[in-house]
Each structure stands twice: as structure tokens, then as C-alpha cells.
Amino acid sequence: MNLTKHWAAQLDDYVMDLVWSPDGTRLAAASSGGGISIFATGDGTRLHQLPGHEDGTNVLAWKSDGGLLASGGQDGAVKFWDSQAGQHLATSSLGAAWVEHLAWRPSEAATGPVLAAAAGRRLSLLAADGSLRHSFRDAPKTLSALVWEPTGACLAAAYFGGVSLWDADAFIVQKEFPYANGIHALAWSPDGRWLVSGNQDPSLHLWLLEEEQEFHMSGYDSKVKHLSFDRSSHWLATSGGQDACVWDCSGGGPEGREPQMFPHDAPVCGVAFQHAHGLLASASNDGVLMLWSPERKLSLRATIRMPAAASRISWSPDDSLLAIGTRQGIVYVLRCQD
Fold first, then answer.
1. Alpha-carbon gap, residue 246 to 108, rounded angstroms
2. Within the chain, how many helices (H) and strands (E) appear?
């Protein structure tokens, strides 16, 4: 397996988020300085430099048709951009709290596309024109993660103390899952069986929804901030130490099974499985990025060292390119080939 540099670009500050357009022809990057850059995948040309958010842009989310890009910032606003023309279309103000989480609903309702946005304790659903579709009751604590169920039927929202599952159409709570600690990350398995949280304790918590069972995996060295399922929902990769820890979630799940441990020489700061293939990318604080195949006896496939640690890693929709945003504000795009 070969990883080769395709192109690189410099932002003005720390890379806060990195998202591919749905067709893979463009890559959007947000910096902590506030600006948003849109690059052409082919050669790294900067197609648009958007002003983003005053004091910093936190998060990006690309609508499924690839035309609309949403951003959330430290100004308490969600902004909508025409990604083709590079123009600002609308702004939704959600108050004084930072907007740190955005997620488009996977399937569009009869009333059109819906964007979930979290700002402080407030969870809102916004239409594509920036208008407010619904504002839920405030969470008990600051919202720390959002993830849609794969069909878009409900939205999971985490806070210190638990997770709420909100019905996307009726706007009511389907279920409440108490958890007596902080939650840093949420992931839903592609088949919809598992809802997983990465926690401050440090630990991993899993809900097997149909069977109404829960599992708890402790023993991590540090907070679990990064989660990634593979396409088959078989493997779940997590951070939480100097190993990328990969659990077998097939059948009855990971309880009683030893995880695979893919070692780094520094704490892991990112994990990402490919969309349609089986490679796992893991990054660590010493600037090293590795590729792994969990199903192989010799799992390690490639290693590359960068000048700075990754703040974001993201596979292109066709899995041929891996984008890495670093803490020094550099965006690298690597080509992955057998």
C-alpha cells in the first residue's frame, strides 16, 4: 500500500474541520482564524476563500447535493454558503454560545432538507434557507456530540449525563440513555444496531438498541474522543491512548472479546475507516499516520510522518484520497494506492 502526496495547502491557523463535497471534486477546510477555504480536488487550487465566522469557525457540513455548505462558529451563528459561486446565502443566529456541531439529516423529509445544529445547550433544526424548523427544549448540560441514525429517523444528542434520541418528524424524545459522566463523541453503526459514545471517564459505552442492552468498555489511558465504524459495522475503531483500539462488533458485540491494538509512539488523535473499503487510518500526536487492515494477520499497510500532528483526517467519497488537516494549519491530501 502506497501513500503519496497529491497536494498541500496552507491555512492561516489550526485546521478545525475538513469535509469533502459529496461528489469528491472539492474539499472544504475551516481554520480557527475563521476563514473557510474550498479547494479543487484535482490539483489543490483554492477555488474560494470564504470569510467564515468572526473569532473562529468550528465545524462544516456539506449538504448531500454538494451545492450548499453550512458552517458553525464562535459567533453563535450557522452560515449557509453557495459552494459553487462562493457566496454567502443566509445566517441563522442561535445565541451567544458557540456552534460546535452540525449534521445534515441523511434522508430529506417531505418538507425538505434539515440541518441539526448544537450551540451550548440548545439543539435546533434548520431549513436549507436558514430558517428555524424547530428548537428543542434545552439539554441539561452543553451538547457535546450529534449523530443521525443512518436512515434519518432520529437524532442522537449527547451531553454530560446522557444521550437523548429525538424523533426527527414528531420532535419528541424517543429514548433517554443516562450516562453519569461526560461524553466526547458519538457514532452510529452503518447498520443502525449500535449507538456508541466515547467518554471522559475514560471509557467506551455501547447501546445495542433493538435488544435493549448496554455494554461498557473501560481501561483506556485517556479520554475517548474519536470513533469510527467500518462500512460493514463489524469493526469499531477508537482513540484513547497510544494504540488505535479496534473492537469486534459483529454478532453479540465486543463484550468478552479482546480488541485489536494498533500501536503508535504517541497518543492517537484521530481514526477514520474508509467509506466502501476496509482500510483504517489512524493519526498520533507525533505527526505519524498509519494505515491498517483489521481483517489481515499483518495489519499494518503503510506509515507516513508529517511535520505536525493531525487535527482532522477524512477519506474522499471514493476512498482514493486521504485529507489531513494539521495543528499548524497545513492541509495535506494523500493518494492511496495498492
1. 33
2. 0, 32
Between CA 164 and CA 162 the distance in angstroms is 7
- Give the range among 104-113, 139-148, 196-205 with minimum mean pLDDT: 104-113
Query: Which three cell numbers mark 147?
Result: 449523530
Residue 183, CB half-sphere, CA atoms under 13 Å: how many? Answer: 30
Q: What are phi and psi of 176, to 5 degrees?
A: -125, 130
Write out pLDDT tens, residues 158-174. Answer: 999 999 999 999 999 99
Q: Quote the CA–CA distance of 317 and 62 in Å, as a whole number.
A: 12
**Cα(142)–Cα(228) distance, integer angstroms:** 23
Residue 162's beta-bridge partner residues?
159, 178
Check if the beta carbon of residue 172 is closer than 8 Å to that of residue 165. no
Cell matching residue 311: 487535527
Q: H helices within the chain, ranges in order? A: none
pLDDT in tens, 69-116: 999 999 999 999 999 999 999 999 999 999 999 999 998 766 789 999
In the block, cell 442492552 appears at 213
- Asked whether the beta carbons of 293 and 338 are under 8 A apart, the reply is no
> What nine digits make up the cell of 52?
467564515
C-alpha–C-alpha distance, residues 90 and 111, integer Å: 19
Res 61: pLDDT: 98
Order of strands, edge to edge, in the sheet holding 227-229? 227-229, 235-238, 243-248, 260-263
